[in-house]
Amino acid sequence: MSRPLYLTLGLLIIAAAILGCAPKPEPIAPVMPPPPTPTAQAPSGVNILAYINVTSHCQEPTIEVLEELDEEYGDQVSLEFVDFGDDGPGTQRWKQDGLDCMAIQVNGSLIQVWEDENGEQQIVDFRNPVGYYWTHDDLKSMVAAWVAGKAHVASEEEAQSVRPPREIVVEIDAIRVTKGDQEIGHLVIGDRVAVKFRAPLGDDSPYERASQAADALLAWIEGSPQPPLFKREKIDDQWAVTLHGEVLATVTEVDAELEDTTSEKLAKEWLVSMREAMAIAVRPD
Q1: Which domain holds residue 261?
Q2: Rounded CA gap, 90 and 81, in Å?
Q3: pTM score, whole prediction
Q4: Does residue 2 sit within a domain?
């Protein structure tokens, strides 16, 4: 049974901005990462620093848009990627800059103000994957405005502005799959199977585990104006994937054995898969 999710996300623009993958459930003021050290200063001062999990490939469309902009404007734009999914220098830099998800900085700020093609002012926070707070059209319009001298980073007063909410539709479901006498529970986010539960947990079957994860995900998002923040945590000596502190899925030793890995590594795989599936599901057409 499909569970349609209508997620209305208001762009909570605050004086200091954090990012990739999510803000806090309460509208507190996060820390704005420090401006990056310019590498190749563009003549027009349009310096783009994109913190993207390049390794996962889940944000390929955004990477392509950025590369097209870089090529279109040539020396007028300087583009740098930080791959926070490389488990190395990119991940370190991403964390050191105070981020916890995808983000795009222009001239050291995530919050941009510009005059669009219709002469209207836009104020957008370029944090989280495309689809939560911003679109690719926003990105293109903003860069064009910078090149034309019609954009600037937001002041504290401008950063208090709230963007009109945008309705997003995401389908989250749990599906029971059987192979012979084996039951597998699929947690489906959008059109992707995010997690396959192959083993029972206590009295819960694999399908019931998937269903509980789907219900927990829906329950939180339906009451929140913000993107979900997935984390991997160790709770009572077991690795789990949590959503703002609430357990979505606990990884058992049996789960790990069936996947020929460790419970710690499998928890990370489930975390990444859930986060990527959600990021793709909210992406505008």
Answers
A1: 168-281
A2: 9
A3: 0.62
A4: no
